[in-house]
Amino acid sequence: MMVARRWVQLEGAVNVRDVGDLQTTDGRRTANGLLFRGDNLQSLTVVDIRRLVDELRVRLVLDLRTGVEVRSEGPGPLHQQPVEHRHLSLFPEAGQTTDVVADDVLPWASDAARARDRNTANPDGAAGYYLGYLRDRPDNIVAALRAIAEQEDGAVIVHCAAGKDRTGVVIALALSVAGVERQAIIDDYAASADVLPQIVARLKSSPTYAEDVAGRSLDSHRPIAKTMERFLAVLDEKYGDPRGWLDRHGFGAGDQEALRCRLVA
Predict the structure, then answer these.
(1) 19-39: b (≥16 Cβ within 10 Å) or e
(2) Strand locations in the chain, DSSP E?
(3) CB 3.0-4.6 Å disulfide test: which of 14, 196, 244, 258 passes with 239?
């Protein structure tokens, strides 16, 4: 369960929270008010915008949605504010719409899919889909982390549609570089389950996502701690740790130190 004060209560988004105040392995904590994670920002109200821009000083939005989603939903009301936007899809833009569409996109979305993973002895299981982001769009993952590290004024918010999968991967990598304790990273990922009914209700209310989520159980959308645990473990096994993967893809020691200094109080 997340600490209540880390959630940002908004009228037009339900899965927005600060990733500050997380314990690092060297006894420090991530800074409050610098990095936020969220779901779709398309329905923000005037009050929400005032909260994010004036109170929380959000100055950069990293939008992980696909081009299809952005064209369908629109850029969002923060585009009318003095806030920079960068569109960094984690898909290869080859026809997939979002990260909530079906079993072939979310391999853990149904009992049948989970059984299929077990029966085929898939070593990555659900985490394999997240590893696909790294395979298909390492450029945009690195660009997102570099943008966070280089933001000198105000806060950054990273978001996608639900704020749990694509956003979860980018935030997990950022927190790994910051030296946050592994269990705290996993717990932060799983915390989206606390507002899962509200997330799914929002998706169902949107023409962009309604058909994709129709007929699926609420539990099929649930972020499971073991998914993030396995995702990070695969990076440990293949690259030494998540930082090793980033170093391999052009986000080296200097970049990582800059991100760590930015995020750790």
Answers:
(1) bbebebeeeebbbeebbbbbb
(2) 17-18, 35-38, 58-63, 84-87, 155-159
(3) 244
Residues β-bridged to residue 61: 85, 157
Model confidence pLDDT, tens digit, residues 19-41: 999 999 999 999 999 999 999 99
Q: What is the pTM of this model?
A: 0.89
Contacts of 154 (CB under 8 A, 6+ apart): 57, 58, 59, 60
For residues 107 and 249, the model is more confident at: 249
DSSP 7: B
Domain chopping of the chain, boundaries:
4-101+136-214
Return d(Cα 179, Cα 168) in angstroms, integer: 16
Rounded CA separation 2/184 (Å): 10
Q: State the helix-helix crossing angle for 253-263 and 138-150, rounded to 10 degrees.
A: 50
